Amino acid sequence: MDRRLSRRGALAIAAAGIAGCLDGSDAGTGVYDGNGEGNASAAEEMTATPDEDSIANSPVPIRDEQLPVEYGLESLREAVVRGVVPRDAIPSIDDPEFEPIDDVGDRIRDDDPVFGVRRGTDAKAYPQAILVHHEIVNDEVGGDPVAVTYCPLTGTAMGFDRGETTFGVSGHLLNSNLVMYDRASETYWPQMLATAIEGDLEAASLVEFPVVWTTWERWRSAHPDSVVLTEETGYARDYDADPYGSYNPVTGYYGEDSDWMFDPLEADDGRPPKEVLLCSRPADGPLAVSLEALRERGVYGIDRGDRDYLAAYDSELDVGYLYRTDDAEAFGADDGTVIGPDGERHDPGELLLEAVYAYDAMWFAWRGFYPSTSVHD
After folding, report:
1. What is the DSSP string of 75-92?
2. Which of 181, 323, 337, 362 has its CA 20 to 30 A from that of 87?
3. pLDDT per residue over 314-354, tens digit each?
4. What InterPro entries would the database entry show (predicted)?
5. pTM of the model as a whole
């Protein structure tokens, strides 16, 4: 089946969907400038480096080391679909309000997806039903200024330190992925890459932190002290309606075999395009682990020669974690816990190993950005 739509048709669908997101606000139809050709760029290592003076003066926290990127900057810029909607037509939430779990009532159903963050003693939940209309929440968690971000088109929820600025929705897409911009330097940051492709901070990488994608029932059970983002966002939105479909139950755009809206950077018909995998991009090469396989096994070892990787499944939250280890085969799983080499049981999210940043992503989007990915079933 040819899943690629014509670019005019794709843009019309996207504009209609986002217009639904905006509840009739003046989002326009977007302006397509001829970029965004699917499969137009052969994967290549990015050789650009960030400007040291710009980093030194940046209000945005920047990683010491650039994250892996498998395309050149110019190739990525040429692939951007610009002006799908005007900048900030999808408005970030800059003054979020929260309520205790006990005050939520039936506003959120047990199986509704939420994005959870814990930093220090703070635990917060951000309902997917709200973020699908805003995509970015500029918040503080554990005393730290952060941005909690979600891209509906790629199924990715990610957190970033934001320092002394806020992030907004640029209105552009790259490989179907949200392109954010920071309001201090107006640099463009594709969410999944977490690396700037245009602006004063181009080629610099953001500081990431994990965002847990789970259900409301699971999150409140694991974190009864959590607070929850309310619908008091300052914007008139129908938060009971998702313009892309539904995760409860899964329908529409979110279905594993449903069509993508925009051609990916690299296409692959070997897997369902929107199958969600646990994905990571360590320096020795990107990898993706089947969540179904991880659920079945409890732990999944990956032998990379010099170092192993261990994926561990948390049955309480239905999420996966990734670690580096010298011997993945020494670990096992039983009854929701990880059994270490010493025979002791450990919480899957708190292993005494080096944690590796990983997040859930739709396969077509991850494969587009990281075509050299090794997949582990």
Report:
1. HHHHH-B--SS-TTSS--
2. 362
3. 999 999 999 999 999 999 999 999 999 999 999 999 999 99
4. DUF3179
5. 0.90
